[in-house]
Task: structure prediction
Amino acid sequence: MIEHGHYEPAFRPLAETFFRATRDAEGGGALAVYQDGVKVLDVWGGLRDPSGAPWLERTPSLSFSTTKGVASVALHMCADRGLIDYDVPVARYWPEFEQAGKGAITVRHVLCHEAGLYDVRGLLSDAHDLLDWDRVVTALAAASPAHPAGRHNAYHALTYGYLVGELVRRVSGAHLRDFVRTELAEPLGLDHLHIGAPPEAIAEAARYFPLPAGELSRHRPRRSEGAAPRRAGDSPGGSGTTTGDTGSRHGRRGWRSQLQTAGVSVLRRAGVPLDQDRFVRALAPRGVAALDWSADATLAACNPSAGGLFTARALAKLYGALAVGGTLDGVRVLSPERIEQLVQLQNRRLDGVLLLPMHWRLGFHSIASKRGFHPGAFGHYGFRGSGAFADPRRRLGVAYVTNCGAGSPIGDGRIFEFAGVAARCAKR
Result:
Protein backbone atom coordinates (compact mmCIF):
# COMPACT_ATOMS: atom_id res chain seq x y z
CA MET A 1 0.00 0.00 0.00
CA ILE A 2 1.28 3.48 -0.89
CA GLU A 3 1.15 5.78 2.15
CA HIS A 4 -0.21 9.27 1.55
CA GLY A 5 -0.41 12.48 3.54
CA HIS A 6 1.61 14.43 6.06
CA TYR A 7 1.94 14.81 9.81
CA GLU A 8 3.90 16.66 12.44
CA PRO A 9 6.75 14.66 14.03
CA ALA A 10 4.95 14.31 17.38
CA PHE A 11 2.10 12.52 15.61
CA ARG A 12 4.24 10.01 13.75
CA PRO A 13 3.14 7.13 16.04
CA LEU A 14 -0.47 7.86 15.10
CA ALA A 15 0.35 7.92 11.38
CA GLU A 16 2.17 4.60 11.69
CA THR A 17 -0.78 3.10 13.58
CA PHE A 18 -3.16 4.26 10.84
CA PHE A 19 -1.04 2.90 7.99
CA ARG A 20 -0.58 -0.43 9.74
CA ALA A 21 -4.34 -0.76 10.31
CA THR A 22 -5.09 0.24 6.72
CA ARG A 23 -2.61 -2.26 5.29
CA ASP A 24 -4.44 -4.99 7.20
CA ALA A 25 -7.91 -3.86 6.04
CA GLU A 26 -9.80 -4.82 2.92
CA GLY A 27 -10.76 -1.28 1.96
CA GLY A 28 -9.35 2.10 2.87
CA GLY A 29 -9.76 5.20 4.96
CA ALA A 30 -8.45 8.56 6.11
CA LEU A 31 -7.47 10.02 9.47
CA ALA A 32 -6.99 13.68 10.40
CA VAL A 33 -6.14 15.61 13.56
CA TYR A 34 -6.23 19.27 14.54
CA GLN A 35 -4.45 20.50 17.66
CA ASP A 36 -4.54 24.09 18.89
CA GLY A 37 -6.49 24.94 15.74
CA VAL A 38 -3.76 23.65 13.42
CA LYS A 39 -3.87 20.56 11.23
CA VAL A 40 -1.15 18.27 12.56
CA LEU A 41 -2.01 15.04 10.76
CA ASP A 42 -3.79 14.28 7.47
CA VAL A 43 -3.23 10.77 6.10
CA TRP A 44 -5.10 8.39 3.83
CA GLY A 45 -4.65 5.09 2.06
CA GLY A 46 -6.08 1.80 0.86
CA LEU A 47 -8.91 1.21 -1.60
CA ARG A 48 -11.91 3.44 -2.06
CA ASP A 49 -14.15 0.78 -3.62
CA PRO A 50 -14.28 -2.97 -4.31
CA SER A 51 -13.06 -2.42 -7.89
CA GLY A 52 -9.60 -1.60 -6.50
CA ALA A 53 -9.52 2.17 -7.09
CA PRO A 54 -7.15 3.90 -4.65
CA TRP A 55 -8.32 6.18 -1.86
CA LEU A 56 -7.49 9.76 -2.90
CA GLU A 57 -6.81 12.93 -0.95
CA ARG A 58 -10.36 14.24 -1.48
CA THR A 59 -12.20 10.92 -1.15
CA PRO A 60 -15.25 11.34 1.13
CA SER A 61 -16.89 8.37 2.80
CA LEU A 62 -20.30 7.50 4.17
CA SER A 63 -19.87 7.72 7.93
CA PHE A 64 -23.10 6.33 9.41
CA SER A 65 -23.76 7.51 13.00
CA THR A 66 -20.81 9.87 12.99
CA THR A 67 -23.33 12.01 11.09
CA LYS A 68 -25.33 12.51 14.29
CA GLY A 69 -22.56 14.66 15.73
CA VAL A 70 -22.67 17.06 12.76
CA ALA A 71 -26.47 17.31 13.00
CA SER A 72 -26.12 18.06 16.72
CA VAL A 73 -23.68 20.89 16.03
CA ALA A 74 -26.26 22.45 13.70
CA LEU A 75 -28.92 22.40 16.41
CA HIS A 76 -26.50 23.88 18.97
CA MET A 77 -25.76 26.69 16.52
CA CYS A 78 -29.49 27.45 16.47
CA ALA A 79 -29.49 27.48 20.28
CA ASP A 80 -26.50 29.83 20.29
CA ARG A 81 -28.52 32.22 18.11
CA GLY A 82 -31.47 32.16 20.48
CA LEU A 83 -33.69 30.24 18.08
CA ILE A 84 -34.27 27.19 20.29
CA ASP A 85 -34.17 26.26 23.98
CA TYR A 86 -33.21 22.80 25.23
CA ASP A 87 -35.89 22.68 27.92
CA VAL A 88 -38.83 23.76 25.78
CA PRO A 89 -41.18 21.08 24.39
CA VAL A 90 -40.42 20.03 20.85
CA ALA A 91 -44.05 20.78 19.93
CA ARG A 92 -43.45 24.49 20.57
CA TYR A 93 -41.32 24.54 17.44
CA TRP A 94 -42.96 21.64 15.61
CA PRO A 95 -46.70 21.73 16.46
CA GLU A 96 -47.59 18.46 14.69
CA PHE A 97 -45.22 16.65 17.04
CA GLU A 98 -47.63 16.99 19.95
CA GLN A 99 -49.72 14.08 18.65
CA ALA A 100 -49.94 10.73 20.49
CA GLY A 101 -48.99 12.04 23.92
CA LYS A 102 -45.65 13.65 23.02
CA GLY A 103 -46.37 17.10 24.43
CA ALA A 104 -43.92 16.65 27.33
CA ILE A 105 -40.91 15.69 25.16
CA THR A 106 -38.36 18.49 25.23
CA VAL A 107 -35.44 19.26 22.96
CA ARG A 108 -33.16 18.03 25.74
CA HIS A 109 -34.93 14.66 25.78
CA VAL A 110 -34.27 14.32 22.05
CA LEU A 111 -30.60 15.23 22.40
CA CYS A 112 -30.16 12.70 25.23
CA HIS A 113 -31.97 9.82 23.46
CA GLU A 114 -34.70 9.99 26.11
CA ALA A 115 -37.70 10.69 23.83
CA GLY A 116 -38.76 7.04 23.40
CA LEU A 117 -38.92 7.29 19.61
CA TYR A 118 -36.23 4.78 18.66
CA ASP A 119 -38.54 2.15 17.07
CA VAL A 120 -37.76 2.69 13.39
CA ARG A 121 -39.06 -0.78 12.59
CA GLY A 122 -42.53 0.20 13.77
CA LEU A 123 -42.25 3.68 12.29
CA LEU A 124 -41.52 2.86 8.64
CA SER A 125 -42.76 0.11 6.32
CA ASP A 126 -39.44 -0.20 4.49
CA ALA A 127 -35.83 0.90 4.98
CA HIS A 128 -35.95 2.84 1.72
CA ASP A 129 -38.38 5.22 3.43
CA LEU A 130 -35.30 6.66 5.17
CA LEU A 131 -34.52 8.37 1.87
CA ASP A 132 -37.77 10.39 2.06
CA TRP A 133 -37.44 13.22 4.57
CA ASP A 134 -41.11 14.21 4.63
CA ARG A 135 -42.24 10.62 5.12
CA VAL A 136 -39.95 10.10 8.10
CA VAL A 137 -40.74 13.35 9.91
CA THR A 138 -44.48 12.93 9.31
CA ALA A 139 -44.28 9.44 10.80
CA LEU A 140 -42.31 10.72 13.79
CA ALA A 141 -44.87 13.46 14.42
CA ALA A 142 -47.64 10.84 14.55
CA ALA A 143 -45.71 8.19 16.50
CA SER A 144 -46.40 7.15 20.08
CA PRO A 145 -43.34 7.12 22.37
CA ALA A 146 -42.23 3.82 23.89
CA HIS A 147 -41.96 5.36 27.38
CA PRO A 148 -42.61 8.67 29.15
CA ALA A 149 -40.12 11.41 28.29
CA GLY A 150 -36.93 11.25 30.32
CA ARG A 151 -37.67 7.97 32.08
CA HIS A 152 -35.11 5.95 30.09
CA ASN A 153 -32.46 6.54 27.45
CA ALA A 154 -32.44 4.25 24.42
CA TYR A 155 -30.30 4.90 21.35
CA HIS A 156 -32.36 6.48 18.55
CA ALA A 157 -30.08 4.90 15.96
CA LEU A 158 -32.05 5.80 12.84
CA THR A 159 -34.52 8.42 14.10
CA TYR A 160 -32.31 10.83 16.06
CA GLY A 161 -31.05 12.80 13.08
CA TYR A 162 -34.51 13.41 11.65
CA LEU A 163 -35.78 14.70 15.00
CA VAL A 164 -32.84 17.09 15.30
CA GLY A 165 -32.85 18.00 11.61
CA GLU A 166 -36.55 18.88 11.55
CA LEU A 167 -36.04 21.09 14.61
CA VAL A 168 -33.22 22.88 12.77
CA ARG A 169 -35.50 23.35 9.77
CA ARG A 170 -38.40 24.63 11.85
CA VAL A 171 -36.43 27.25 13.78
CA SER A 172 -33.91 28.36 11.12
CA GLY A 173 -36.07 28.11 8.01
CA ALA A 174 -33.30 26.16 6.24
CA HIS A 175 -33.30 22.45 5.45
CA LEU A 176 -30.56 20.67 7.35
CA ARG A 177 -28.63 19.83 4.15
CA ASP A 178 -28.48 23.55 3.30
CA PHE A 179 -27.75 24.63 6.87
CA VAL A 180 -24.72 22.32 7.05
CA ARG A 181 -23.46 23.59 3.71
CA THR A 182 -23.95 27.33 4.28
CA GLU A 183 -23.25 27.57 8.03
CA LEU A 184 -20.48 24.98 8.44
CA ALA A 185 -18.88 23.67 5.25
CA GLU A 186 -18.55 26.92 3.33
CA PRO A 187 -17.48 29.26 6.18
CA LEU A 188 -14.89 26.78 7.47
CA GLY A 189 -13.64 25.95 3.96
CA LEU A 190 -14.31 22.22 4.33
CA ASP A 191 -13.82 20.05 1.27
CA HIS A 192 -16.59 17.48 1.90
CA LEU A 193 -19.08 17.83 4.73
CA HIS A 194 -22.47 16.76 3.40
CA ILE A 195 -25.72 15.46 4.83
CA GLY A 196 -27.39 14.87 1.51
CA ALA A 197 -24.50 14.97 -0.96
CA PRO A 198 -24.45 16.81 -4.32
CA PRO A 199 -23.55 14.90 -7.53
CA GLU A 200 -19.96 16.14 -7.61
CA ALA A 201 -19.30 14.79 -4.11
CA ILE A 202 -20.97 11.47 -4.87
CA ALA A 203 -18.72 11.09 -7.91
CA GLU A 204 -15.68 11.18 -5.59
CA ALA A 205 -17.17 9.02 -2.83
CA ALA A 206 -15.79 5.79 -1.45
CA ARG A 207 -18.04 2.73 -1.72
CA TYR A 208 -18.49 0.18 1.01
CA PHE A 209 -17.00 -3.28 1.10
CA PRO A 210 -19.34 -6.08 2.27
CA LEU A 211 -19.22 -7.04 5.92
CA PRO A 212 -16.76 -9.82 6.75
CA ALA A 213 -18.34 -13.29 6.81
CA GLY A 214 -20.10 -13.94 10.10
CA GLU A 215 -19.60 -10.38 11.38
CA LEU A 216 -23.26 -9.51 11.35
CA SER A 217 -24.31 -12.46 13.49
CA ARG A 218 -21.81 -11.45 16.16
CA HIS A 219 -23.60 -8.16 16.64
CA ARG A 220 -27.21 -9.30 16.62
CA PRO A 221 -29.08 -10.13 19.83
CA ARG A 222 -30.59 -13.60 20.09
CA ARG A 223 -34.36 -13.57 20.35
CA SER A 224 -35.15 -14.45 23.93
CA GLU A 225 -37.25 -17.44 24.90
CA GLY A 226 -40.89 -16.40 24.89
CA ALA A 227 -40.28 -13.29 22.78
CA ALA A 228 -42.90 -12.40 20.22
CA PRO A 229 -42.49 -14.28 16.95
CA ARG A 230 -41.30 -12.39 13.89
CA ARG A 231 -44.22 -10.97 11.99
CA ALA A 232 -44.88 -11.60 8.33
CA GLY A 233 -42.80 -9.19 6.28
CA ASP A 234 -40.20 -8.62 8.98
CA SER A 235 -36.70 -8.81 7.59
CA PRO A 236 -34.45 -11.39 9.25
CA GLY A 237 -31.53 -9.33 8.02
CA GLY A 238 -28.77 -7.74 10.00
CA SER A 239 -28.30 -4.51 11.87
CA GLY A 240 -29.78 -1.37 10.42
CA THR A 241 -26.70 -0.66 8.39
CA THR A 242 -25.86 -3.44 5.95
CA THR A 243 -25.34 -3.60 2.24
CA GLY A 244 -26.73 -5.96 -0.35
CA ASP A 245 -28.07 -9.25 0.96
CA THR A 246 -25.35 -9.74 3.54
CA GLY A 247 -27.78 -9.20 6.41
CA SER A 248 -30.30 -11.80 5.36
CA ARG A 249 -27.63 -14.37 4.58
CA HIS A 250 -26.00 -14.21 7.99
CA GLY A 251 -29.27 -13.58 9.82
CA ARG A 252 -30.66 -16.92 8.67
CA ARG A 253 -27.63 -18.73 10.09
CA GLY A 254 -28.76 -17.76 13.57
CA TRP A 255 -28.22 -14.83 15.91
CA ARG A 256 -25.31 -15.14 18.32
CA SER A 257 -26.02 -12.87 21.22
CA GLN A 258 -23.54 -10.24 22.30
CA LEU A 259 -26.20 -8.53 24.38
CA GLN A 260 -27.43 -11.27 26.71
CA THR A 261 -26.42 -12.86 30.05
CA ALA A 262 -24.50 -10.22 32.05
CA GLY A 263 -25.68 -7.20 30.07
CA VAL A 264 -29.31 -8.28 30.13
CA SER A 265 -29.29 -9.07 33.85
CA VAL A 266 -27.69 -5.71 34.67
CA LEU A 267 -30.34 -3.96 32.59
CA ARG A 268 -33.09 -5.76 34.47
CA ARG A 269 -31.54 -4.82 37.83
CA ALA A 270 -31.40 -1.19 36.64
CA GLY A 271 -35.18 -1.23 36.26
CA VAL A 272 -35.30 -0.74 32.49
CA PRO A 273 -38.26 -2.65 31.00
CA LEU A 274 -36.22 -5.24 29.14
CA ASP A 275 -37.11 -6.18 25.60
CA GLN A 276 -34.38 -8.04 23.75
CA ASP A 277 -36.21 -7.18 20.56
CA ARG A 278 -35.52 -3.47 21.19
CA PHE A 279 -32.11 -3.65 19.57
CA VAL A 280 -33.62 -4.96 16.35
CA ARG A 281 -36.46 -2.45 16.39
CA ALA A 282 -34.02 0.46 16.71
CA LEU A 283 -31.51 -0.73 14.13
CA ALA A 284 -33.24 -2.88 11.54
CA PRO A 285 -36.16 -1.42 9.59
CA ARG A 286 -37.92 -3.92 7.35
CA GLY A 287 -36.16 -4.44 4.03
CA VAL A 288 -32.82 -3.13 5.32
CA ALA A 289 -30.93 -6.00 3.67
CA ALA A 290 -31.98 -4.65 0.26
CA LEU A 291 -30.83 -1.07 0.93
CA ASP A 292 -27.45 -0.21 -0.59
CA TRP A 293 -26.07 2.36 1.83
CA SER A 294 -23.38 3.66 -0.52
CA ALA A 295 -25.52 3.85 -3.67
CA ASP A 296 -25.84 7.26 -5.33
CA ALA A 297 -29.49 7.69 -4.34
CA THR A 298 -28.73 6.85 -0.71
CA LEU A 299 -25.83 9.31 -0.51
CA ALA A 300 -27.95 12.02 -2.15
CA ALA A 301 -30.74 11.67 0.41
CA CYS A 302 -30.57 13.76 3.57
CA ASN A 303 -30.28 11.11 6.30
CA PRO A 304 -28.86 12.90 9.36
CA SER A 305 -28.87 9.73 11.44
CA ALA A 306 -26.59 7.62 9.27
CA GLY A 307 -26.04 9.17 5.84
CA GLY A 308 -23.33 11.82 6.11
CA LEU A 309 -20.61 11.94 3.46
CA PHE A 310 -17.40 13.38 4.93
CA THR A 311 -13.66 13.55 4.60
CA ALA A 312 -11.66 13.05 7.77
CA ARG A 313 -10.04 16.47 7.46
CA ALA A 314 -13.44 18.21 7.25
CA LEU A 315 -14.67 16.48 10.40
CA ALA A 316 -11.36 17.05 12.19
CA LYS A 317 -11.44 20.78 11.45
CA LEU A 318 -15.03 21.06 12.68
CA TYR A 319 -14.25 19.25 15.94
CA GLY A 320 -10.91 21.04 16.10
CA ALA A 321 -12.85 24.32 16.25
CA LEU A 322 -14.99 23.00 19.11
CA ALA A 323 -11.85 21.86 20.94
CA VAL A 324 -10.42 25.40 21.08
CA GLY A 325 -13.53 27.22 22.27
CA GLY A 326 -15.69 27.15 19.15
CA THR A 327 -13.86 29.54 16.80
CA LEU A 328 -11.27 28.65 14.17
CA ASP A 329 -9.75 30.75 11.38
CA GLY A 330 -12.02 33.61 12.39
CA VAL A 331 -15.18 31.52 11.99
CA ARG A 332 -17.30 31.04 15.10
CA VAL A 333 -19.10 27.70 15.15
CA LEU A 334 -20.26 27.84 18.78
CA SER A 335 -19.64 30.08 21.75
CA PRO A 336 -17.47 28.83 24.61
CA GLU A 337 -20.51 29.06 26.88
CA ARG A 338 -22.50 26.82 24.54
CA ILE A 339 -19.73 24.24 24.46
CA GLU A 340 -19.67 24.20 28.26
CA GLN A 341 -23.38 23.32 28.20
CA LEU A 342 -23.23 20.63 25.55
CA VAL A 343 -20.41 18.72 27.27
CA GLN A 344 -22.32 18.35 30.53
CA LEU A 345 -23.15 14.72 31.29
CA GLN A 346 -26.91 14.14 31.00
CA ASN A 347 -27.33 10.51 32.07
CA ARG A 348 -25.26 7.57 33.29
CA ARG A 349 -27.81 4.80 32.82
CA LEU A 350 -27.24 1.79 30.64
CA ASP A 351 -28.61 2.54 27.21
CA GLY A 352 -31.80 0.60 26.55
CA VAL A 353 -30.78 -0.32 22.99
CA LEU A 354 -27.02 -0.77 23.23
CA LEU A 355 -26.95 -2.12 26.80
CA LEU A 356 -23.91 0.04 27.50
CA PRO A 357 -23.50 3.22 29.56
CA MET A 358 -23.08 5.74 26.73
CA HIS A 359 -22.86 8.73 29.11
CA TRP A 360 -24.95 10.85 26.77
CA ARG A 361 -24.23 14.54 26.59
CA LEU A 362 -26.35 16.92 24.48
CA GLY A 363 -26.18 15.11 21.15
CA PHE A 364 -22.86 13.39 21.78
CA HIS A 365 -21.52 10.47 23.77
CA SER A 366 -18.46 10.40 25.96
CA ILE A 367 -15.25 9.37 24.24
CA ALA A 368 -13.54 6.12 25.06
CA SER A 369 -10.31 4.71 23.67
CA LYS A 370 -7.99 1.86 24.46
CA ARG A 371 -6.56 4.17 27.12
CA GLY A 372 -9.95 4.49 28.84
CA PHE A 373 -12.37 7.42 28.92
CA HIS A 374 -11.13 10.88 27.92
CA PRO A 375 -12.54 13.33 30.50
CA GLY A 376 -14.40 16.21 28.90
CA ALA A 377 -14.13 14.83 25.36
CA PHE A 378 -17.28 14.48 23.25
CA GLY A 379 -18.22 13.33 19.76
CA HIS A 380 -19.84 10.43 17.95
CA TYR A 381 -18.59 7.11 16.62
CA GLY A 382 -20.32 5.22 13.81
CA PHE A 383 -21.12 1.80 12.44
CA ARG A 384 -18.21 0.05 10.72
CA GLY A 385 -15.51 2.20 12.27
CA SER A 386 -15.80 5.92 11.56
CA GLY A 387 -15.74 8.48 14.34
CA ALA A 388 -14.96 12.09 15.24
CA PHE A 389 -14.56 13.94 18.51
CA ALA A 390 -13.28 17.03 20.27
CA ASP A 391 -11.03 16.85 23.34
CA PRO A 392 -10.97 20.38 24.80
CA ARG A 393 -8.46 19.46 27.53
CA ARG A 394 -5.94 18.51 24.88
CA ARG A 395 -7.28 21.09 22.37
CA LEU A 396 -7.61 18.19 19.96
CA GLY A 397 -10.00 17.35 17.12
CA VAL A 398 -9.75 13.82 15.70
CA ALA A 399 -11.66 12.18 12.83
CA TYR A 400 -11.53 8.89 10.96
CA VAL A 401 -13.56 7.76 7.96
CA THR A 402 -13.48 4.34 6.31
CA ASN A 403 -15.37 2.08 3.91
CA CYS A 404 -14.77 -1.23 5.68
CA GLY A 405 -14.86 -2.65 9.15
CA ALA A 406 -16.91 -4.49 11.71
CA GLY A 407 -20.64 -4.46 12.27
CA SER A 408 -20.98 -2.89 15.71
CA PRO A 409 -23.37 0.10 15.89
CA ILE A 410 -20.66 2.15 17.63
CA GLY A 411 -17.62 1.41 15.53
CA ASP A 412 -14.79 -1.07 15.87
CA GLY A 413 -11.37 -1.25 17.47
CA ARG A 414 -9.63 1.09 15.05
CA ILE A 415 -11.25 4.35 16.17
CA PHE A 416 -10.69 3.37 19.82
CA GLU A 417 -7.02 2.71 19.08
CA PHE A 418 -6.57 5.93 17.08
CA ALA A 419 -8.17 7.97 19.86
CA GLY A 420 -5.78 6.56 22.43
CA VAL A 421 -2.66 7.07 20.33
CA ALA A 422 -3.76 10.62 19.42
CA ALA A 423 -4.06 11.47 23.11
CA ARG A 424 -0.58 10.08 23.74
CA CYS A 425 0.90 12.06 20.83
CA ALA A 426 -0.79 15.27 22.00
CA LYS A 427 1.17 15.11 25.27
CA ARG A 428 4.53 15.17 23.53
